[in-house]
What does this fold into?
Amino acid sequence: MNNAFSLPTRSTGNIMMNVMLALIPGTVLMVYWFGAGIIVNISVIMLVSVACEAFVQMLRQRPATPAILDGSMLLAAWLLGLCLPPGLPLFELIIGAASMSLLGKHVFGGLGQNPFNPAMVGYAVLLISFPKTMTAWISPTEFSQAANAWDSITQATVLDRLRDLERQGLSVYEHTLSPWPWNAINVAWLFGGLYLLARGIIRWHIPIAMLLSAAVAHGLHYWAFPQHTLPPSSMLLSGAMMLGAFFIATDPVTAPSSLKARLLYGAGIGFITVALRSFSNYPEGIAFAVLLMNCAVPLLDRCFVLETKP
Amino acid sequence: MIKESIQDLPGGLALQTPSGAHIDSTLHAMPLQTHYYLPLVNYQRDVLQPNVSVGDKVMGGELIASGVIAPTSGTITQLTHHTWPHPSLTKVKTLTLAADGQDDFLTLPNITLCDDSAEEKLQRIERCSVHGLGGAGFNTAKKIQRVMEHNAPTLIVNAVECEPGINCDDALIQNHSVAVIEACDALCKWLNVSNALLAIEDDKTTAIEKLTQALLAQQSTMQLAPLSAIYPSGAESTLVQRLTGIQLTQGQPAAKFGVLCINVATVLAIHQAWKGLFSAQRILSVTTQDLKHSVNLQVRFGTPIDSTVQFAASVNPFIAKSLNENRASVSVGGPLSGFTQTNDSTPVMATSNALLVGAMPIKKPQSACIRCTDCATVCPVNLLPQELYSAVSAQDTDTAQRYALDNCILCGCCDLVCPANIPLTSWFQHGKDELKHQRAAEQNAVMAKARSEKHNTREQQRALDKAKADAQRRKVAAQRSQSAIDIKAALERVKNKRPSS
Ligand code: SF4
Ligand code: SF4
It folds into this structure.
């Protein structure tokens, strides 16, 4: 195609680079509070997934370099790395990365063909297989102690803690964990997301629908049982909510195409996330919510075929 | 019916030609060629039967096949298969005309606006072979006939160029603004048009100035409709949508809604046809691949593309330079819809609005679709190209139809923005061709079935008739034998009686 017109044409690699750029502030904050284990997670997963990518491309007799350089696998690896507690055994990291690349992407035919978000596939595999290590987040430490983070007592996140309290029949107000680090991290994701919106890399429909529906669902729950739930404001800034809304649910490959379908898709993820957080055995529901709504994408796409554009 | 404010398209791209582009608006007339190639095919890609045979002498304007006229006088020397300017790069039956250099044309009487009937005017348009000079090459007489069913139709004269790098309409207006307005007015008067618009991009300042002067001088009722230059406004469906808000789907002609959308050069050709001039040439832009230099030529239909480009190179040194570059090639059509032609003597036809010369840009490697929906954002007819692409590349024509492949106007916007560099438009062109074949095959099957059914009923009828006839015959024979027996019996009786007497 002639490109004598100076159109700001983007390339796949360029898009992925921008998303990774937007991930930096939140990642830095996570390293600040959780230590270098986060970096270890991300790097190990990146290495393993790139190796898987190269291996599959070799099997398929296709050049590996462009497939790796398009950045989609690195981005997925980064996202998965952010979702895993630091200090996860190496062997589990490898399983997670391999499931992400092979089960999440390549069994369906590679980039663009996968119905499920690869990072969330990797996460779900790990969570189901190794529930114990996967829910053991170390407590956030100040940077000065981060070097010792490896030794710090593993401790549940706010959401885990809440669940325990609830099981013991105590009210949420008795929890002692400070939500502050998680809130700050979520604000960083939010800023990254706003950057992506401003650059036109993602569109507002999915994140806004997701956050709104999560807020409404949680609000109802809070209104019904104020003793057992966090106030809605802190809910939106807890766990992986913002990461999910701006970086995971917006993955274009696994999201529906048309505008209305995207609103429904986002709303579905928000609702299921809150439902899982409140009523399931798992502390965080985003991964399963995304995977469940991924299942609905073909249906959504079918329902809104000739809808006006996204 | 005309919208108060000009609509913006749901998609489209604001394509800028590079700054410092130099466009030569002078009309350079091409000298007479020795040979002209006349493909026997119409805008619907139907193959036509020639009215002449090899060796015949023809006059300029003579009908050599339905809707095809000789562009000059000369002798038909060949009937061969030859390439024609179509992206399929296929060959069709083509007549070769060797010009005799006299350039004699048939003479036709003038048609006057008030005295002659509508029938005669239409016939004249048909006879002079006026075809849409925009890009689709429709049969103009048919288009007008359709609109005549409506009282007080709307007229949209389309002077919006199809693509950047094409500026033949601009050049025409700059050189013949008065004649253009005259022609528009004549058309308005004839068709009793209620609303007449002349659509043009708002950045063509010289042309707009000339038109404004001409409108004033002629006291014309035409209205100028300057549009922001959003590609692809030049296409009929998008232009009609921007100006009237009517959304045309599935190849619906605007004429169905009482809107006559017609290219500015075509309007002029109609007016000239009434004056007895044949529509045997067009204005064509020859532009460098980087869109920086452009000249406009007056070229007769049938002129080989090679000679056209050589002539352009002789009037503009930059074009000559581009032509001599490495990897230089010539493509037919603008930078978006153009296709590289493979044969130097492919002829210019009514639909050829531009030739691009120069080194082809290096193709970026294609990767997988990441469903970013950039393509859907720019699609001017609200399609989902990514879904269409997966359907077409999987050869799933049903799904492709569900995603309205028919509505795709092959504008190429989706290609331009795709971050994975997927040649979407080529796929859609391919899909449309497939669909067309499939439909033709279905049609054939239906017709064959009808034929065989007819054949069967005929056979049955014949069998029935035969049975009837047989029965009749048997009956007659039986009667006959019965009567023979009767006679015999009677004779017997007579014989028996006789001896007793
Ligand atoms: S622009 Fe290209 S990559 Fe993006 S959805 Fe369309 S076809 Fe796919
Ligand atoms: S080529 Fe077809 S699908 Fe692509 S933007 Fe143009 S009309 Fe839409």
Observations:
- DSSP finds 15 helices and no strands in chain A.
